[in-house]
Amino acid sequence: MDEALSERQKAVLDAALSLLVEDGDKLTMTAVARRASCSKETLYKWFGGRDGLLTATVQWQAAKVRALPMRRETLCPESLVQGLEQFASDWLRVIASRTSIALNRVAVGQAGTDNHDLGLIVLENGPVALRARLRPFLDLAHEAGLLAFDDADLAFGTFFGLVVRDVQIRLLLGDRTPITDAEIDRDARRATQQFLALYGAHEAARAAPINERGNTHARVL
Known about the structure:
Layout lengths: L6 H17 L5 H8 L3 H8 L2 H13 L14 H19 L2 H13 L6 H9 L1 H17 L8 H13 L2 H6 L8 H19 L22
């Protein structure tokens, strides 16, 4: 998504995200144009309307979860661990950001009402899109004999639960306890270790037990 955007378009999406944090579902094309110092005509040309702009903002947030290595010949126990840890840490940083919390609060607030467009946009371009991005990596690791599972969707659901835990719901309910980068990296390593303990096909592909400081060290061939 971000590779197809110009720097100017990225700046507009950042402006839209900042307005969502401030104003929630009161976001308008006029307000975004004013904040981003561009014309409404330009916004409509780029995004096709409010729903298109909302979709692009959610995709822009999700794009902060970096792509995974997808070459079978380079996938090994070490790169499997590194890929899962990277995905988990990026994911946690995104959901813990003020912009994502604001987006999700508005989406949850619209659930069950006639005005639930943002909820559907967040669902399709957030969790669903991330599932589509991670599943091929899990399938590739399965084909390489590094993971053992019968159902890739179930494996993804397990990884999702281990990574997110209760973090998102606590933040949505107003928990103001800051989450540091060190804590995010620790939790990403822990989730990866736990996932590989369940689905790792080889001992070498599993993360080492977590020590007293919450660190893990990957054992590789």
